[in-house]
Amino acid sequence: MPERVVGRTRELSTLTGLLDEVERGRGQGALLIGDAGIGKSTVAAALADVARDRGYAVAWGRCPETETLPYWPWRQAFRALGLSVEPADATLARTSMYAAVADRLGAVTAGQPAVIILEDVHLADGSTLALLRFVVGLLPELRCLLLVTSRDNAVDVPEQVAEALRALPPSFVRLPLTGLDRDATGELVAQVVGSADAAYADAVHARTGGNPFFVQELARWQAARGTTSTETPIGVRQVLDRRLARLDQHTYDVLAAAAVLGEDVGLDLLAAVVDTGRADLLAVLAAAVAARLAEVDGSRVRFAHSLVREVVYAGLGVHQRSALHLRAADSLADQNDAGQVAAHCRAAGAVERSREFALVAARAAQRQSGYEQAVRFYRWADLDDPVVRLELGAAQVLAGELAAGRDTLRAVARTTEDPELVARAVLAMGGGVGGFEVDLGDEEQTALLERVVPLLPDGASKAAAVARLALARIPTDRGDGPRQLADEAVRLARAAGDARAEVAALAVWCDVFSGPDHVAERIAAAERMLAIATGDLALVLLARRLLVVALLEQGRFAEADVQIAAFARAVLPLRLPLYSWLVPIWYGMRALMSGRLELAASCIAQATQLADDADSPNARLMVFALRAAHADLTGVVEELRAYVETVMGPFVGNPLVDGPSAYYFARAGSTEVARSIVRRRARDGLDAIPRDAEWLESLAFLGEAARVLGEPEAARLVYDALTPYAELWVIDGIGGACLGSVSLFLGRLAAHLGRPEARRLLENALEVHRTAGAETLAAETEKALAELGVPTVRAVGDAGELRCLGASWEATWRGVTAHVPDSKGIRDLAELLVRPRTPVSVLDLSGPGRVQGADLGPVLDQQARTAYRRRLLELEEELTEVTDPARAERLRDEREFLAHELASALGLGGRARSAGDPVERSRKAVSMRIGVAVKAIERVHPALGRHLRASIRTGRQCVYEPADDVTWHCQSAAGASGVTAT
To answer: Nearest Cα to 580, choosing from 589, 590, 591, 570?
Structure first.
């Protein structure tokens, strides 16, 4: 431990232990919290020294007190790593920039582990906190330790920072720093004054509470007076005032200017403000450095502690402070940092000039996805200008202030006569052109668009406005109006040659043409969206969402899984609830289909939290769909009766939701309510149910309710309506649940009505359910067939095909086909699959001539193996006595690591493996690439991936050992003949 650190052994031990975890490939995070002067920076610096000695790259970022560019501390830290948080294209959304940061940070830390230290996060702005949440989500995949420091009192920590720190995951180690104990205080006092008796150390501890900064300042002051008396000034502020008073006036004036500029200031800027040359400035600062009030580091000067700056700034008179702020603004005006200029002008009382620069800063922050910072700057700008108010509202919506942002935008739209501004305001209410989640219940938006659309000239803006109007009319216009508008929006966008407008128009087109009659057309439209939405991640995600739903409706689950995986890879690291709630919904839906009930329950919990975070009505409805489907499958719907009534109650009487309402009320025990709904719908007919995205789902539920309740008239109506769509699948909403093939519902209704086609329909349903790997749906279908007296027989063996297409491979398993890129691991799998239950040497898989080199001796020598075994015994003894859960976890991790290393170093019979053994080198290479190949397959074909993971054994000899007989046809080169093996 570095000599300058006193009393922080436990904290440093914990942090260095996290470095051990990073070196094992598991990224870590830690939060150092405590009062000003408690030693957070000192501990961080000590960790940095240890990390550098171990070969880490160390990067620092400090949150400034003054306004600066978005993501400022991240800019500092990333710059030290050779990265940037600047988006390649200023028009790209935050999501695209984050995706780029994830890629670059992963690449950098893969080459060299890193420690990123983010200091004074209690001063962080919204954009910095947003990126912090994102990087925290990345940590498990990085070779990186992220150390965050912050104060922890309610006065210094704003609520948004407190909320961000509370939201850090449980795996993020929290290290609160408190005052030093009496012994450590005495050691620190001795470092300052040379020696200290116990009574004096106790007195200092009592006066300072062990705060290291206070301890050192008090000790220095008393040492200068030549006394160890406990008669001290009242508070450290007075200590600093006395030290400052000993400076000459020129030095104090320079510190005053620095205090106005911030805690960490560039020397060139400071020289400009005080109007002196850099050499003269350094000479003046030498006195402050000698007094330990400031530190000069290269081209920057920083106060020794934030308390020093606070004392200096508080001591300035009003006129002096204002003059310094104006000089700072003048010096910064040409440095492309409008935010700081605006802040200094505002502090000086120069309101008009502050508004001018605040607007420039707000727009710059908006372009860089610093939405929270943009909101603050817009509020400083001239809000009498409707364009500025519109931009403020748009930034509020994107920053998560949804209700406030929409209110701001609505006020603009109501008071302006400019049709372009009205259209822009309404579009911004839904988050911009794409509109990932639009409030269709806001009738005023519809009225505003209807007023201004005829006044807009043809072009991209009109295309987007017409598309939004088409979407807004869906709830009230059941005729051709919305479809005509959607077609017109697409035509206008294509005529304008604007890809973003066309994607937005096509998205609305898909919503308007939803339902069972246009599934293929929606797939084509979504694929077109994906092709032209490059560079705008929000629009790409919108396209994937639409494509996933349409593929699910056609039962193309392998292709849907590919899109779901791509959606998840793009959105999960970003930790944006607006988009990410869909991922656990889809994962939960697929888990429920395959019978993985615990995983589905976990997904429900994740989706519930994200729905609350996003404050999304759509998300909450999809959580209900998944939760209700899970309860239905496990037979506990009645336990959710209050939940069902709360969610479905407000929709009673709405034809669209009569089916789900009747079914879940019936399953929850409210049979009379359910029966009244079914009979009313049978009496009024099915035409009132819109043929949109929920039509199949609504009728399927209505038919099931009619069957369960014994209502044959309703059952006949539903059967006749569903018959043309037997080949489609029933999907709840945008993937909240997969209810099965339409043929399952038709078969059940046919059986209930005594129709002879029941068996054929159910057998068709069983085949498609088995092909899709939908085990729960297959079981339901088998039950329905059994009720008809039809036995069902499962196939004894499986068959698979693996064909090389050149740059990719085509894998077919249980009727589902997927594609993966060519790799050595895929070729290894092909070799193993055609030789089931036959061990294959890794040397054969490596190929002739690929393995060279002589034996370099054992992986671990005898002395190392003995030491490993001795330490494992010690760990077992320690684990029987330890009571601290965190320490126990670290001990178990160490035990696991040592056991793995020892096992890897030994071969058959406990003989030592050689580090240079060609077979050993091949074993590692082949095992790694087969593992990577299986993961690649699992992403696009989960069922095959699970089968291979359970059946492939790697080692010095690799073998494919399926539990049951499997026939594989493998073609290892494009155009070559295949090999078949059983």
So the answer is: 570
Between the two ends of the chain, the Cα-to-Cα distance in Å is: 62
Which residue, 397, 416, 359, is CA-closest to 93? Answer: 397
Largest CA distance in the chain: 107
Q: What is the total residue count of the chain? A: 982
What value does the mean pLDDT take over residues 480-503?
A: 93
Tokens of 626: 């998944």
Q: What is the DSSP string of 418-436?
A: -HHHHHHHHHHHTTSSS-S
- Name the helix (H) or strand (E) containing 243: helix 236-245
Residue 377: which pLDDT band, with cuts at 50, 70 and 90? very high
Residue pair 121/161 in contact by the 8 Å Cβ criterion: yes
3-state secondary structure of 756: coil
How far is 169 from 538, CA to CA, in rounded Å? 26
- What's the Rg (C-alpha) of the chain? 34
**Distance (Å, rounded) from C-alpha 807 to C-alpha 786?**
47
pTM for the structure as a whole: 0.65
How many degrees, rounded to 5, is the angle at CA 211 between CA 209 and CA 212?
140
The tens digit of pLDDT for each residue in 2-56 reads 446 888 989 999 999 999 999 988 899 999 998 888 899 999 999 999 999 999 9
| Pick from 377, 415, 373, 378: nearest CA to 393 | 378
For 922-974, the pLDDT digits (tens) are 888 898 899 889 988 888 888 888 889 889 999 889 999 987 788 888 876 55
Q: Residue type at 774?
A: A
Q: Can you tell me the distance from the alpha carbon of 665 to that of 441, in angstroms, rounded to the nearest whole number? A: 25
Judged against a pLDDT cut of 80, whether residue 797 lies above it is answered with no
630, 604 Cβ separation under 8 angstroms: yes
Per DSSP, the residues of 34-93 read: --TTSSHHHHHHHHHHHHHHTT-EEEEEE--SS--STTHHHHHHHHHTT---S-SSTTS-
CB atoms within 10 A of CB 497: 10
Q: Hey, is 703 helix, strand or coil?
A: helix
CB 533 within 8 A of CB 523: no
- Beta strand 28-33 with 173-176 is parallel
Q: Could you give the CA distance from residue 159 to residue 297 in angstroms, rounded to a whole number?
A: 33
How far apart are the C-alpha atoms of 583 and 288, rounded to whole Å? 55
